[in-house]
Specification:
This protein has about 290 residues and is of the alpha/beta class. The protein folds into 2 domains: about 5-165, Alpha-Beta Complex (inorganic pyrophosphatase (n-terminal core)); about 170-285, Diaminopimelate Epimerase, Chain A, domain 1 (Roll), CATH 3.10.310. Helices cover about 40% and strands about 15% of the residues. The strands form 2 sheets. It has a 6-stranded mixed sheet, sandwiched between helices. Strands 1-2-3 form a 3-stranded parallel sheet. α8 (about 200-210) links the parallel β5 (about 190-195) and β6 (about 215-220). α3 (about 105-110) packs across α4, α7 crosses α8 and α9 (about 235-245) crosses α10 (about 265-285). The protein is globular, with a radius of gyration of 19 Å.
Length: about 290
Amino acid sequence: MHKNADIDALASALYLKEYFGNAVIASDGMDKTTKNVTRRFNLDIFQELPEDMEFEEIIAVDTASFEQLGKFATLPLDTVYDHHASNNMNVKKRVVYPEYPSCAEMLYRKMPYEVSRTVAFLLLCAIITDTLWFRHARRDTFQIFTEIMDKYRIEMNEIVEILDNNMSFGEKISVLKGFQRMKYRTVGDKIVCVTKTSANESLCATALLQFCNVVLVSSQRRDAVRITGRSRELDLLRVYRKISQEFGCTYGGHKKAAGLNCTGEQEAILNALMELVCEYFKGEKG
């Protein structure tokens, strides 16, 4: 799984583990919700792989680039199962379908298999989180979701109980700081927002998206700058592709939810991104 693995990565990895049989799952860290799920269902996720462990096949799941694998980026990968349009992984076997909003949904459709109820439950959680509670769902998404609920007799309140976690005090402070440091520009009726935070970038971006058409949240670790982007309609990958040529960045994700990793001056990168997004909106207006 990719670094700081989310529910979609976990559900997809567990799906493939049951599909193929004997397998181990490893990730360089997990997000808060995924950690809670692994504890709740007592799931074994490796953070380190024993040196004497041998594998017939090494698979990356829900991962668009080698850099996203973190400490496992140098493993000799054989296969990738993914749904990101930005996927650039050159491996022996690529199973990549960008039209699916979640990797879990893709695997359910492309590799049908009778999984356990726990994995089925996590597939539903993955679909919800990767579509932002169905905001980015396709028509087929609802059919798949209903099929799984009916087949495994899963109720919506079970899913909400897992996903509807209250933010911690620290997370609330991170979001409030993001609002406090925010700058915005308008192009017609479009609002472009940029801000800085030291943690919980995704939470901050999602919160700001209620008010902005495009949100770019930046954090910095030494000279490494990470941008978390959210958009209502603009293709973020298009923006990142152009900005990466100027600042030598790497990027990945979806058109409306994507990340950018750069080396350089944080303020300069944020300003360039805001200017570029505004240019795209001006072009659409013209």
